[in-house]
Design goal:
The protein has a domain of 59 residues: Cytochrome c-like domain (Cytochrome Bc1 Complex, Chain D, domain 2, Orthogonal Bundle), CATH 1.10.760. Helix content is 49%, strand content 0%. The protein is built from five helices and no strands. The radius of gyration is 22 Å and the shape is elongated.
Length: 108
């Protein structure tokens, strides 16, 4: 029991730590490529996450970008209207696409 109390006390000291001075969180900019649909895509995607999420996907097929866009709408309630889906997918595929319409898994 003494060990448990000692462990709790030692692990709780971090809760009371204070930093004298200002803490700065670094800002990381993920610039978007200029192009048709950039403004609409920025407004829709960056509302929930940084554009780094898109860049980290790598160059992908049109099918991939469509599936991701639909997933964002259906799973995460992304504010993308049906009429804007094609604009977003076209922008992502044109600027961050693999130049393939279908994903590799669809070609099996």
């Amino acid at each position: 029991m003494k060990r448990f109390i000692l462990l709790v006390l030692l692990s709780s000291f971090g809760l009371f730590a204070q930093v004298n001075g200002e803490i700065q969180v670094p800002y990381v900019d993920f610039p978007m490529k200029k192009g048709k649909g950039e403004y609409s895509t920025r407004g829709k995607c960056n509302m929930c996450h940084s554009f780094g999420y898109v860049i980290n996907q790598g160059k992908q097929s049109r099918e991939f970008w469509l599936e991701k866009t639909v997933k964002m709408i259906e799973t995460f309630n992304a504010p993308i209207a049906d009429k804007d889906i094609e604009v977003v997918v076209d922008y992502l595929f044109t600027n961050y696409g693999s130049k393939s319409e279908e994903s590799n898994s669809s070609k099996e």
